[in-house]
Design a protein that fits this description.
By secondary structure, the protein is of the alpha/beta class. It has 19 helices and 20 strands.
């Protein structure tokens, strides 16, 4: 059984340094040897007012999902932090400023609203920071110092992170932040002597060598770099912008270029043009931008031109909820566009897979001459995890282009009908391999041809090619034992972590349940999914969308209607909700 499993939240207003404090906490706890799974919630406005909350789950075992129960709440703004009171676990700890810079009436004080079993620890965050550094701006660091002392986490881990974060901003800034942290640490050590919590130090733990604390967005960017991307074209949009920012710094160092385009249409057009010329390229967007890309994505389908597109889903429709999570772009990713425009859609379920699937997407795009959509979501893009990312092998970066044979020189057929549906692809400049590329239906040579017979043959060819990609796409992964299950849970994207945690908990209770991870959204492994369904009395599919979009896509494979658990609150689905549904079905 896990010895450490703690969820820590920091809540404040925009401008309180909430997100910065959460980032320092996450890295410090990671350096202390803990597994970390973290996620931030913040307003959609760039510099507006609003509540900011960091959620950090730390423990001595792998973290698959966030918990909906908070064990430690650090309040940087009492009024905003009251919204987190319903999520406090029994005997939770609340750290708050008991001497705020401005008057706080009883109705706004968090101390007046928590349940009696909550353990309150008041500290003068702002005063401590002001006395130590001359400014109250370091109150978030003083609060972190209080937390570290209260739980006997060595200050060194926080010092190392603070130095790393602020050393580039000048000695004065660095010193002010270190002093603010130390002031909080010293105050808590004295004020709460005899009340300190159990130490969070891990006496023995596995080596963390090779593991790093990174976000889904950073993992995507690193996967693109290791995948040999040469050009990135993008337009800023939440939550995909950090990919653009990361690559803007890193890609030029590898001889590539990043171009901020005028819009998403231009971005995907440039990606198609780059691949057409033989250079690996990528773009990343979210739902509103993806909708603008649809016409050119289907042009890539018809002209059989590779492209790599990251769709970081957020709440919709339209501009929707920019800083909230959802899984409601599945229909758009798989079916969006006119005609039968089949393309490859894959969906990572954790930060490591964000890296792995982005790395692989370039090879898939080249081999199957198709747009490849990597379908993530706000929670997955912004959350951070401690993961190991090995150096990719040469085979994982290799060129997967299918080039024409020498025998075809001079009479090259770009869209030759083949058994696999994959035609040899020349790139401009290859002498003797002249061809047309068009969004119109065309013959094997690329000449427009609207005849019924040709359109039927070419439609079959394009779909045969895409369905053939299953051999290179991740197969469903099953987590169950036995040939007969009461309930089978099928999930995708970031929700799979919650589903797996719920299923493992149910199995510990003796329930005959199992989980299936589906990462290849289209084409999907119908036979393997059906095989899992056949051993289950009932199938439950939890999703962060209203319609049950994966259920719509694969539900017909089951012998009876699947059960849908749909949620559109803008927040990740808690494992407890899925577990409750499993138990009700059993």
């Amino acid at each position: 059984m896990p010895k450490v499993d703690m969820t820590i939240e920091i809540c404040g207003m925009s401008g309180d340094g909430t997100i910065a404090a959460g980032g320092i906490l996450n890295e410090a706890m990671s350096r202390a040897g803990f597994s970390v799974l973290a996620f931030d919630s913040y307003p959609a406005e760039i510099r507006g007012f609003g509540r900011c909350v960091t959620h950090s789950r730390v423990g001595d075992h792998e973290m698959r999902a966030l918990s909906n129960k908070t064990h430690v709440l650090i309040s940087l703004d009492d009024k905003e932090s009251q919204s987190r009171i319903p999520f406090l676990a029994k005997n939770a700890v609340v750290l708050f400023d008991n001497k705020p810079p401005s008057y706080v009436d009883a109705a706004s004080s968090i101390a007046a609203h928590v349940e009696p079993d909550v353990r309150l620890f008041g500290m003068p965050f702002a005063d401590l920071a002001a006395a130590a550094s001359g400014s109250t701006r370091g109150k978030n660091l003083a609060a972190l110092g209080g937390f570290a002392a209260l739980f006997s986490v060595p200050a060194k881990f926080f010092h190392d992170v603070i130095v790393k974060k602020f050393k580039g901003k000048g000695e004065k800034t660095l010193e002010a932040n270190l002093k603010s942290f130390d002031a909080g640490y010293a105050h808590a050590g004295q004020a709460f002597k005899g009340l300190l919590m159990s130490s969070l130090a891990l006496p023995e733990r596995e080596s963390d060598e090779g593991k790093v604390l990174i976000s889904g967005n950073e993992a995507i960017a690193r996967g693109a770099l290791d995948g040999g991307v040469k050009l990135y074209f993008g337009y800023p949009i939440t939550p995909a912008t950090p990919i653009l920012e990361y690559l803007a710094k890193a890609l030029p160092e590898r001889g590539g270029k990043v171009v901020q385009m005028e819009d998403e249409i231009a971005s995907v057009g440039a990606v198609l043009g780059s691949f057409f010329a033989g250079k690996r390229a990528m773009t990343a967007t979210s739902g509103p931008g993806f909708s603008l890309m649809t016409e050119l994505i289907t042009h890539g389908v018809m002209s059989e031109t590779p492209a790599v597109i990251i769709d970081a889903q957020r709440g919709g429709p339209s501009t929707g909820l920019p800083s909230k999570t959802e899984q409601s772009d599945l229909h758009a990713a798989v079916f969006g566009g006119p005609g039968d425009s089949a393309r490859i859609v894959i969906a990572p379920t954790d930060v490591k897979e964000c890296y792995e699937y982005t790395l692989r997407s370039f090879q898939l795009a080249e081999k199957y001459q198709s747009p490849v959509i990597v379908l993530t979501d706000f929670f997955l893009n912004n959350r951070v995890e401690k993961v190991g990312i090995p150096e990719p092998a040469d085979a994982e970066r290799a060129d997967w282009n299918v080039y024409p044979e020498e025998a075809g020189r001079g009479h090259y057929r770009r869209y030759r009908i083949t058994e696999t549906g994959i035609s040899p692809r020349a790139v401009p400049g290859m002498e003797g391999y002249l061809f047309n590329a068009t969004g119109l239906e065309h013959s094997e040579r690329g000449i427009p041809d609207y005849s019924p017979e040709n359109h039927m043959k070419m439609t079959e060819k394009r779909h045969r090619k895409i369905y053939g990609a299953l051999q290179d796409l991740p197969a469903p992964e099953e987590f169950s034992a036995g040939d007969s299950l009461r309930v089978g849970v099928i999930a995708w994207g970031s929700t799979f972590g919650s589903a797996l945690e719920a299923v493992l908990t149910a199995q510990e209770k003796g329930l005959k349940v199992g989980a299936l991870k589906v990462a290849s959204i289209f084409p999907y492994h119908a036979a393997l999914i059906r095989r899992f369904m056949e051993k289950c009395e009932q199938i439950l599919i939890p999703e962060l969308n209203y319609e049950g979009q994966l259920a719509n896509l694969i539900g017909h494979l089951h012998k009876k209607d699947v059960i849908r658990l749909n949620r559109t609150t803008g927040t990740p689905m808690p494992a407890s909700m899925i577990l409750e549904k499993i138990e009700s079905l059993v």
